[in-house]
């Protein structure tokens, strides 16, 4: 199957700082990338849908000014958590979708805000 | 938007028995229904999927059924093995180009 990478895998930052997470499709061009948040033992919560060259579509309740998404190319999307707070601590997973509608997940990023 | 419900939230079965997980969805226009397996701390992995023009699909010990009229679909795992223990998520892909996930089922296969 297709490979999606995510970097970093773990990050610890201080409250008030910003953190950038990268999501790359390594061997295919993704028409769409998705960003999810997952709390321990909980389901994946869709945060936003990202299409290359256009603005991301955010789900209701997700602050677009806090979670900045940039989809610079067909293989790269970034999520920046701005002015992070402890309640932003979570597991963030990206996925990339191919034309067939299948989506492939990145390995996730564990964010801890102290 | 779409609303996906999944049951049960936890499931324990004896090794060799079958496991069934059920999901319902609300958007009748949803047309693609994948199932994912997620082991602790790892990414979800697609294990099987079904499209709205098909009623059933099978891949070795795993099968998925879809009832479009009732808007529900189910995952069936036969002859369960300890390595099947994981959290399983259903999802529905709707016309808004988005995936919506069920709440997950933690499956434990007891040796």
Rg of chain B to the nearest angstrom?
A: 13 Å
Characterize the main sheet of chain B: 6 strands, mixed
Radius of gyration of chain A: 13 Å
* Count of DSSP strands of chain A: 11
Q: How many helices of chain B?
A: 0
- Secondary-structure element order of chain B, N to C: EEEEEEEEEEE
- Low-confidence runs of chain A: none
Q: Helix coverage percent of residues of chain A? A: under 10%
The fraction of residues in strands of chain A falls at over 45%
Name the chain pair whose interface involves the most residues. A-B, 23 and 24 residues
Q: Alpha-carbon distance between the termini of chain A?
A: 37 Å
At a glance:
The complex is a heterodimer of chains A (114) and B (111). Chain A has 114 residues and is mostly beta strands.
Describe the 3D structure.
The complex is a heterodimer of chains A (114) and B (111). With 114 residues, chain A is mainly beta. Chain A has no helices and 11 strands. In chain A, strands 2, 4, 5, 6, 9, 10 and 11 form a 7-stranded mixed β-sheet that branches. Chain A has a 4-stranded antiparallel β-sheet with strand order 1-3-8-7, with no helix packed on it. In chain A, strand 7 and strand 8 (76-81) form a beta hairpin. The model of chain A has no long low-confidence stretch (mean pLDDT 91). With 111 residues, chain B is mainly β. Helices cover 0% and strands 55% of the residues of chain B. Chain B contains no helices and 11 strands. In chain B, a hairpin with a 4-residue loop joins strand 7 (62-67) and strand 8. Chain B starts with a strand and ends with a strand. At the A-B interface, strand 4, strand 5 and strand 10 of A face strand 4, strand 5, strand 9 and strand 10 of B.
